[in-house]
Write a structure and sequence with these properties.
- The protein is α/β, with parallel strands linked by helices.
- The protein has three domains: about 200 residues, inorganic pyrophosphatase (n-terminal core) (Alpha-Beta Complex); about 110 residues, Diaminopimelate Epimerase, Chain A, domain 1 (Roll); about 110 residues, OB fold (Dihydrolipoamide Acetyltransferase, E2P) (Beta Barrel), CATH 2.40.50.
- It has 19 helices and 18 strands.
- Helix 5 packs antiparallel against helix 9, helix 9 packs across helix 10 and helix 13 packs antiparallel against helix 14.
Length: about 575
């Protein structure tokens, strides 16, 4: 899908006010204005990294009821089970709550369902097959449970209490649990709707630690330092692609610091196995190196591998698990490539397919655990909402991904009479459907996208922050830019444009020789190291670019740091 390039032009008066307030360069002020960080309050909040500015935990609806019930369970030694989701957000939330309750002396067990054989969230069969035989007294869900009405009723009938902590959209009535802590519930005025599941779990832990302190629980045992749990919060928050502002930004900033300090054996092992330098871990490393490896277990086998890694206390055991996760991630990449090839072949054979505003496809051989990744790839490529199903006899399961301008969750609500179940966010969802009505769903979903999408099928716009000449690329400028980190959803990495760029040196690199390392510059300006990934054949031989779109970062290698350009797109001179 072709992209339009658009250089953002923030209000000049706003840029000057930011520049005077921060005593920063016009470029840094422009970057902040482009992110709508302009007022003194917004700037202060953006650069504040202290926990004193976060909203209090008891502002979340039902928090008091949850804390009262958990404290009672801890005091009398009841059996507590933490029921988590099988993605990175759910894994990290499970480990966080399990570690805290263990430190508090609770009788606690973590449990994550098998993605394929058990499916998403707490179900009635979990109560009858796992909880009742295990004599569980209290279930706490993390990153799931808001739609588990039947399971909660089954638990109540068995005398088992349930506390739900979740962040997914809620449709209809709330389950009749002891507490439903979900900032997206309509009657919750906390303002914390952007939290990931692990963020909600962290808020529960903050409230629980305070109550236990008031009850003098820590008199005879060490009181946990909650900052040391922020590495888990950072992992889950970045992996779940929630906006990195307000509390999320604070949690991730501290979490990255904890990771760099190397306090968790399992994360250290995964960092090493991923070929990263722990001292310079950033949000991109989590999103593209660590999270996919943690996710690979739940996609191809069982997510409890992730729990085992993050709770490991032995380096050798952690290294073994991390190595296994890397192998599973490699297998995941191979299967993913085959699935994308199938889809590309279908699209090439049916070009009329791309005239639709949405993409709905089903195939009996597709791996259920990889549907979400493939759907994400397709939304990037075709800039349309995508729903993919793995066809099964009877009921098929699927994953959906959306684009800005179309609320996927609301869209699926309008198709709900064709679905067996669904749940998720405006940008991502999981669903199940009777195989025989997939065609009917496709027609209704297509009409829904046409009726309610703000998009019009035009090429995607690539927003560029600033036209940057190479004389602006100085050590001080790159250092100033790093203050804008961590990057992610809601705070994208700055994107620049340079014109008339000369390639002084280039070489093909990578296992498949599909990447390009370069030295680039403008006329008499100094040359800068650059790298471009997955280069098209016609661009390999180019020795000049009319335009170059790029990120600018420090490259850390053997204790040295040098400026590095990450090339996103180029325009080569006409021949």
């Amino acid at each position: 899908m072709e992209k339009n390039w658009k250089i953002l032009e923030p209000d000049a008066r706003t840029v000057n006010e930011i520049r005077r307030s921060l005593k920063c360069s016009p470029i840094i002020a422009t970057l902040l204005a482009n992110r709508h960080i302009a007022s003194g309050k917004e700037i202060s909040a953006f650069f504040s990294n202290t926990f004193t500015t976060i909203r209090p935990p008891f502002c979340l609806k039902d928090m008091a009821a949850a804390i009262d019930r958990i404290c009672r369970a801890i005091k009398v030694g009841e059996k507590i089970l933490i029921f988590g989701d099988y993605d990175v957000d759910g894994i990290t939330a499970t480990v966080l709550l399990y570690q805290f309750l263990t430190d508090a002396g609770a009788a606690v067990t973590p449990y994550i369902p098998h993605r394929i054989s058990e499916g998403y969230s707490l179900q009635s069969r979990h109560i009858t097959e796992k909880m009742i035989p295990g004599d569980i007294d209290l279930i706490i869900t993390v990153d799931c449970g808001s739609s588990g009405h039947d399971a909660i009723e089954s638990a109540k009938a068995a005398g088992i209490d349930v506390i739900i902590t979740d962040h997914h959209a809620i449709s209809g009535d709330l389950p009749r649990a002891v507490a439903v802590i979900n900032p997206k519930r309509p009657d919750c005025s906390s303002g914390l709707a952007d939290l990931a599941g692990v963020g909600v779990a962290f808020y529960l832990v903050m409230a629980l630690r305070k109550q236990l302190r008031d009850d003098h629980h820590w008199k005879n045992r060490p009181e946990p330092n909650l900052r040391q749990y922020c590495d888990l919060v950072a992992l889950g928050t970045i992996a779940d692609v929630v906006p990195l502002w307000d509390e999320n930004r604070i949690f991730v900033t501290h979490g990255l610091d904890v990771m760099r300090a190397g306090n968790r054996v399992g994360i250290n092992a995964l960092v090493k196995a991923s070929g990263l330098d722990r001292a310079f871990i950033d949000s991109e490393d989590i999103a593209f190196r660590l999270a996919p490896r943690l996710n690979a277990a739940g996609r191809l086998s069982h997510a409890d591998m992730g729990v085992s890694l993050l709770t490991a206390g032995d380096e050798d055991a952690a290294d073994q698990i991390a190595g296994d996760l890397c192998k599973k991630n490699f297998t995941r990449q191979l299967i993913e490539k085959e699935m994308l090839t199938d889809i590309d072949r279908y699209v090439n054979d049916h070009p009329e397919f791309l005239q639709k505003r949405s993409i709905v496809l089903a195939h009996p051989g597709w791996h259920i655990g990889l549907l979400g990744i493939i759907a994400s790839r397709m939304t990037e490529r075709y800039v349309k909402p995508v729903v993919l199903f793995s066809k099964q006899s009877g009921v098929s399961r699927g994953s959906a991904r959306s684009i800005p301008g179309f609320d996927l969750y609301q869209g699926l609500e309008r198709c709900s009479n064709t679905l067996e179940a669904f749940g998720g966010h405006p940008m991502a969802a999981g669903l199940s459907i009777k195989t025989g009505v997939i065609d009917q769903f496709q027609k209704i979903f297509e009409k829904t996208v046409r009726d309610f999408s703000s998009g019009d099928g035009l090429p995607q716009t690539l927003s560029i922050d600033f036209e940057l000449d190479f004389h602006h690329i100085t050590d001080r400028f790159i250092d100033d830019m790093t203050r804008l980190q961590p990057y992610g959803a809601g705070n994208r990495e700055p994107l620049f444009l340079a014109r008339d760029v000369k390639v002084f040196y280039s070489a093909r690199i990578g296992k498949d020789k599909c990447h390009k390392r370069m030295r680039v510059g403008q006329l008499s300006e100094k040359a800068v190291n650059a790298i471009q990934f997955n280069v098209s054949p016609e661009h390999f031989e180019a020795d000049a670019f009319d335009c170059m779109i790029f990120h600018l970062r420090w490259n850390h290698y053997k204790g040295r740091k040098t400026a590095q350009i990450i090339v996103k797109e180029v325009e080569i001179p006409a021949r």
